[in-house]
Design goal:
about 350 residues; alpha/beta; inorganic pyrophosphatase (n-terminal core); Diaminopimelate Epimerase, Chain A, domain 1; 2 domains; six-stranded parallel beta sheet; 13 helices; globular; binds guanosine-5'-monophosphate; binds manganese (II) ion; DHH_sf; DDH_dom; Phosphoesterase RecJ domain-containing protein
Length: about 350
């Protein structure tokens, strides 16, 4: 099966970038998810495998608890906790690998550190509209996940044979989380071929599923139930739904990072639903609302994320943020739904 993504010129560029690098930084987007964290760590494992010993994985902030089992996770350096170490790593780097983000602004406040680095940049990503001012841009929005791209790159670099179970587990995790457990964005035969190749590396796929998806605290499950029961609004005639979550509600259920992960997908279980919007107050920054959008059944939420929510993402899974109160955010969501009423009907 054809897995190669790079043409001859690109593979030469990649090989040169890697062979010339000694001090390597790997970074991913703010609020790193399964794909951002999995792909960064998988790439780290691969680089270790080819003899690179000085690799720093730098993330803007925390990963959710359900990813802490990922092999190599304890080597991650958080910019919000250890800014000096991150600055030093970027300063000393002779290669910076940017995984799972398309625009440098997606690393949030870590951007100034990223921008200050003089090292060549390698971008590996699957979001739409990537920045291309890199030494090599490996951007494939048609891929399920950055982890899938990482697998294909390792394979094209002849690294599959020596791939470790740890590396394979990180890749599987990101492919699984970015496709909702292979329920969307995952219909190409190559994806299941790659899963077969990962299984041949002795990954425990059921254990990975349990660690990621069966990891709620009782409070988290009750918070999610509360939102669906008491907060979810459904505009039946427009096949759209939205909910708001306030800081007070999160405090009531002892919210920790990750507790709301994936909840925006749940309203899509309603027959015929085309759009689901999540509006959640930021627990740290005042007057900031975090927005997640999901679409299906022929509607695509990405343009809505860009036009109404200062964001973007994938065609059917996008995000953004608003600098306003949660009540104002709700009004913007209603306006956005009505703006697209023809397509949603
Ligand atoms: P989530 O809803 O899981 O936070 O994000 C869904 C998708 O939208 C992710 O692939 C993420 O990269 C993208 N996304 C989330 N927030 C933003 C944002 O503020 N700007 C852009 N361009 N994309 C975003
Ligand atoms: Mn991703």
């Amino acid at each position: 099966m054809e897995l190669n993504l790079l043409n001859q010129e690109e593979i030469v560029t990649l090989r040169n970038l890697l062979s010339n690098a000694t001090n390597i930084v790997i970074c991913a987007h703010k609020s790193p998810d399964g794909d951002a964290t999995g792909s960064s760590l998988a790439w780290m494992h691969y680089l270790n495998q080819i003899g690179k010993t000085n690799i720093k994985v730098c993330m803007p902030d925390a990963t959710p608890d359900f990813l802490h089992w990922l092999p190599g996770h304890n080597s991650i350096i958080r910019y919000d906790r250890r800014p000096k170490e991150v600055k030093k790593a970027f300063k000393e780097a002779d290669l910076v690998c940017c995984l799972d983000f398309n625009q440098r602004s997606r690393v949030d406040t870590m951007q100034e550190v990223l921008d200050s680095s003089k090292a060549p940049r390698l971008l590996i990503d699957h979001h739409l509209e990537p920045e291309t001012n890199n030494a090599l841009t490996v951007s494939h929005p048609e891929m399920s996940s950055t982890c899938e791209i990482v697998f294909r790159l390792i394979s094209q670099l002849d690294g599959y044979e020596k791939m470790t179970t740890q590396c394979a587990s990180c890749i599987y995790c990101g492919m699984m989380t970015d496709t909702g457990g292979f329920t969307y964005n995952s219909s190409r035969p190559e994806i299941f071929y790659i899963i077969g190749q990962l299984l041949a590396k002795n990954i425990d796929k059921d254990e990975i599923y349990n660690r990621v998806f069966h990891n709620y605290s009782t409070n988290a499950l009750r918070l999610r139930a509360h939102i669906i029961l008491n907060k979810m609004k459904v505009i039946e005639e427009l096949h759209a739904s939205y909910y708001t979550v306030t800081k007070e509600e999160m405090a009531q259920f002892h919210f920790i990072k990750g507790d709301m992960e994936g909840l925006v997908n749940i309203p899509q279980q309603i027959k015929g639903l085309k759009l689901s919007i999540s509006l959640r107050e930021d627990t740290e920054k005042p007057k900031t609302v975090l927005v997640s959008l999901r679409s299906c059944n022929g509607f695509h939420c990405q343009p809505m994320a860009a036009k109404f929510f200062n964001g973007g993402g994938h065609a059917d899974a996008s995000g953004g943020r608003l600098n306003c109160t949660i009540e104002e955010a709700e009004q913007i969501a209603i306006k956005a739904i009505l703006y697209y009423k023809e397509e949603l009907q």
